[in-house]
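Title: Prediction job returns without error message
Component: structure pipeline
Severity: low
Priority: P3
Assignee: unassigned

Description:
Job completed but the reporter wants confirmation the result is attached to the right record. Sequence as submitted:
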Amino acid sequence: MTNIIDYIKWRGDLSFDLSPLNEVDNLIFSKLVYLDIDDIVAEGEMTIGQIADLYHESKGIKKLGALLNENFVKLLMIAGQSNRFKNVSVSRLVEYTCEETTIQFAAMTFKISDHISYIAFRGTDDTLVGWKEDFMMSFLETVPAQIESLKYIDMVIKNNPSSKFYVGGHSKGGNLAVYASVHTDYKDQILGIFNNDGPGFKESMTQSEKYHMVADRFHTLVPKSSVVGMLLEHEESYEVVECRYKRSGLLQHDGFTWHVVGTSFIHMPDVDGESKLMSKTIKGVLNSMTIEQREQFTNAFFDVLSTNNQKNLLDIQGGHFKSLFAMTKAYSGLDDETKKLLRDVFNMMFGEGFKNMWTRE
């Protein structure tokens, strides 16, 4: 299987002047934004080559979290050695997480040439705060990270009036890229908007005039068994890519599994039946719940997950039986109405899944 790392090995000698930005480059920038480099890039600009050297000296190649494997660092190292990426500068690094306001947000700007840059938004990381914010999209019109994404894109574009921009991200980062591009007043400077397997929006967004003003610049990419990218509504058309894993949609969410040939991914006619089934199931569950129930479920679910002072997926993963015991105890302490809601939601998902299996075309 050939992926984005192989792409750099094969085509990394070609500058962006010789071969303009393509959909594979887009995913590479959307992956690099996941790296924790705020202690390396404090102020100003620094090239990917410089960042790679300093990162290797200070941190080496290791797993970054439950979801962030060694491939992220390998990507940085290989990109930092390539003619194509090593001189791309990184600036405007913003990163913060806050439990009180339930926000997980990070973004950075990659300057490809004097007048073209790529604004990348980070997707959901290992923090429970980040995952809770994702769930909040089911009952809030706007989540905190979306508000911050608009502030960020306005700040960057306003300060670079002679430049053009690509905007993108992976997972929630793709959702933020679309949201910011739809709502910014600087739409004329945006060349393209990449949503790499990120969730969609409510119809109030997809049917809006602002949304349709930039719809012709959307590039929505989802794997064949997409789960995350099929959530909520996508008014725009999407492109389906082939992946290493044939059946698991959650494993296919990992962009390092997407097949690359030349300057593009291998494209498929449509998502598979399992993806359509999961999308139909989740939407069926959401439609059966009131807005208040969605909020109540989200708060209760993450209260249980965050017991024993667990902050991220590694805490839960590393705690094993201790974490399971704490979460079970927290669930037992909920009032009967909340416990019933949690049971009902999982039962609805289970029941919807079976109903859809019997009724799918």
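Comment from assignee: result matches the submitted record. The first helix runs from residue 4 to 11.
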